[in-house]
Each structure stands twice: as C-alpha cells, then as structure tokens.
Amino acid sequence: MITLSGLKQFLDNLEEGILFLDQQRRVLAINEAATRMLGQNHDTIVNKLCPTLFQGTSCARSCEKLGQCTLMAKAAQQKKKIQDLTVQRPDGILIPLRMWAMILDEPLAYCAVVLRDRTREVQLEEAASERLHLGGLVGHSGVMQDLFRQILRAAASEASILITGESGTGKELVARALHDNSSRAKGSYIRVHCAAFPEQLLEGELFGHARGAFTGAAAAREGRFEAAHGGTLLLDEIGEVPLNIQVKLLRVLQEREIERLGENQTRKVDVRIIAATHRDLPAMVRRGEFRADLYYRLRVLPLHVPALREHREDIPLLVSTLLANMLARYPERNAQLSHEALDALGAYNWPGNVRELVNALEYAMVQVEGTTILARHLPPEIRETGHLPAGSQTETSGTSPAPASALVQRYYRTPAQQKGQEKEILQQALKESGGNKAAAAEKLGMSRTTLWKKLKQYGLDAPEQ
C-alpha cells in the first residue's frame, strides 16, 4: 500500500513538474520540480488559478477567452494535446516548457498537468540550426560544414583572402560571412564588382580622385578603399581587373596606402581585402593576363566554394529555405514541393548552381496553378534531365506533396524576413494555419520555439485554435 508521504516523495523525485487541478483549474498540489520551473514556492502556487501561473502565454489567453483549459478539454476527450510555451518567472528568467494534461477524475484532483523543462532541448536545437547556417550560407553536407569551419578560422585572421568557385555558388555570401564573423564586423563592408566598370572608371572607383583629375571631376571624391577604412573591401570578379590597375592594387596590399587620381599625396587605409573570382587565375598567370605577385598576395588564405552538384544532399534544405523566403513575394501561395519535383531537382546538374536553383523555384512559383509544385512546373531543362514528361502529372494525379518546410525543419534568416516583411510573413502563416502555431511553424520551416519568440516580438502571440 502506497502512503501519501510515499506518493509525495515519489512525485518530488520526478524530473517533470506536476500540478494537480480541480475542475475550476485551481491548483490543489504541486511537486518540487514544478516549483523550480515556475520559480515560485509551494505556498505561493497552491490555490492559484492555473492561467495566472502562465500569464502572458497563448495557453493562458486561450483559457481566459474560452473559459476552460484547452489541455483539459482535449484530455477529457482522451486526446493528448501538447503545448510548447515559454514562461517568464518572477526573477525575469524565461524558461521553455512543454506541457500536457491527463484527467484523473479522482476525489482529490480532477486533472494533472505535466511540465517538462525544454531548456536543454532548445539549446541543442539552436546549436543544430547554427551548424546548418552561417550567415546567408546553408548546408548540412560534409563539404559545406568544412567550408563553414574554414570561414570561421579565416575570419579570425587579418590576412587577405581569395574566394574561388563557379558562378552562382555564393562567393559573395562567403565574403559577407567572413566580415560578419571578424573583428571588423562593426566596420564598413564595401563590395566592388570589378567587371561592372570600364577600365577608365574602375581606377577612380577604387582609389578616388581629386577635383579636376579628369573631365567632369567637379569635386574630389573618396574611393572604395577609403570608404572601407576600418572594415572589409570585397573585390568581386578580381580576374577582370586590367593589368595597369593590378599594379596599384599590389601597392595597396604591400604598403596599405592609396593615391587618389590627380594627387601626389598618399593616404593610409586600414582595410581587410577579400577577392573573389570564378576564373582560373593560375591559368591567367601563365598566360600573362594576371600578375603572379598580386595573385600570391591575394591568396594568403584561399577558400573554394563547392558547386551545387558537389553537395546535392543540401538541395532539400536549400529548397525549404528559398521557398520560405519567397512567401514575402508570393504570400497567397502555400508553396509545397512534390516528391517527384524534388527528385527532378536532385537529378539536375546545376551549371548555374544555387543562383539557378533560385531562378528555377521562382519559375515554378509563377507556373503553379494550385499550391503544390509538381515536376511539370519546373523549367524545361530540369524536367528533361529528370526524364519526366511534361504532361505526366496533374494536380489530381494523387502525387503526394512534400512541404518544403517539412523537408528540413530549420529557419533561415535573410534580409527578406526582417522587421516589417517578417511580421507580414508570420501573420500570413498564422492566417493560413487557422491560428495553429505548430502548423504555421511547419509552413515557415522553423521550430515552434523560434516561431513563439518571433510572435512574442511582434505581439502576434495568438492562442492556438
């Protein structure tokens, strides 16, 4: 026979918190784990209404709105409803909890509410998310994880970096990640697309010019090197720089000083230089098209960005991320990807790499009639590579959709999902999900904890339906 003291000892040794409630949702008893989680003592909690303990959460608002506990209502129907929420304790500490209820219908208590501390789980979840993302870069494959490690090591250095890789692989994203993770993160990040300027303008763009240095120079102007002082300068498509300007770039790397066009005065600059190119610079050196001394000065720390075909296993993650971002432009579309469409994306060789993948998904978003992207909605070259006849699938063919956000449950932070646009995306996801936050999180490809924090930030923490 178990005594009351033995039962209390058992409950107090559980890792889960237990609250016993009556039918009016009043707390009758509580174990020690629950008092630790809620940051209150036993006497403070007993006789309180359960919603007051979780004040400010969607669970409490739902109770107040409906006049009953949704967890208890579901438990009465013999359905286990799990609610994830974050509670602010009296000491100001936020603690993520998972809670559910079970009906006891005993003389001493009507219901038991179980609490589980999710702090460690959330920490692991966020750590996993960080491992999948570095700034705008995404990837769980071995080659991408290796690239992430190289970026973090290189970011801690002040040495010049040469980023190589095919067009569309994300070389500029690598440069940005290097800057953001360096000691210069608070300084300027300036990018110069060297191929975008004719030779006579590129020199002035880089080094600046004095008043009257050439026709039309009505005022003195600082160049990109001066603008990047204290920060980072990305020389994108460095292989397009003419030989005469290469000589001046070499001097900047050696002396850390520049001269504006039309001036004799030297100006010191403190700039971390990153160069990027899709061209074969060693071959250009052999042909005399690129200075060998400049090449070796630039590639103190070389980084190579792999082509998409070298890490196809990242395609589901990339698709999930990109489709979630496209909600900003296509809020009326609940973008889902069929398994056949995903197979076609995986079979394609991607000569244009991630940039081409972005364009392919944009094409599909325009072509799709409903909410499921089928293989026939993809660009012709991708359909043909995947050996999928253009008319082989229809919206009613029974093709099972695989929501892109369900393929990889991770959240991708980009400028398109910040501030006002992010709030609109969250509102739309909640609307399409009928207020169900778990479903909204799945649509957006983020964890429920991350979604809850975002909703709290924008005052959108509506109760679940």
Describe it.
The chain has 465 residues and is an alpha/beta fold. It has 3 domains: 4-117, Beta-Lactamase, CATH 3.30.450.20; 142-308, 3-Layer(aba) Sandwich (Rossmann fold); 311-458, Orthogonal Bundle (Helicase, Ruva Protein, domain 3), CATH 1.10.8. The protein has 22 helices and 19 strands. A 5-stranded antiparallel sheet has the order 2-1-5-4-3. Strand 1 and strand 2 (27-30) form a beta hairpin. The longest helix has 15 residues, at 353-367. 36% of the residues are buried.
What are its keywords?
Helicase, Ruva Protein, domain 3; five-stranded antiparallel sheet; alpha/beta; five-stranded parallel sheet; Beta-Lactamase; 465 residues
CATH class of the largest domain: Alpha Beta
Question: Pairing-aware structural class of the strands and helices?
Answer: alpha/beta
Parts with pLDDT < 50 across at least 5 consecutive residues: 387-420
Query: Strand order, biggest sheet?
Result: 2-1-5-4-3
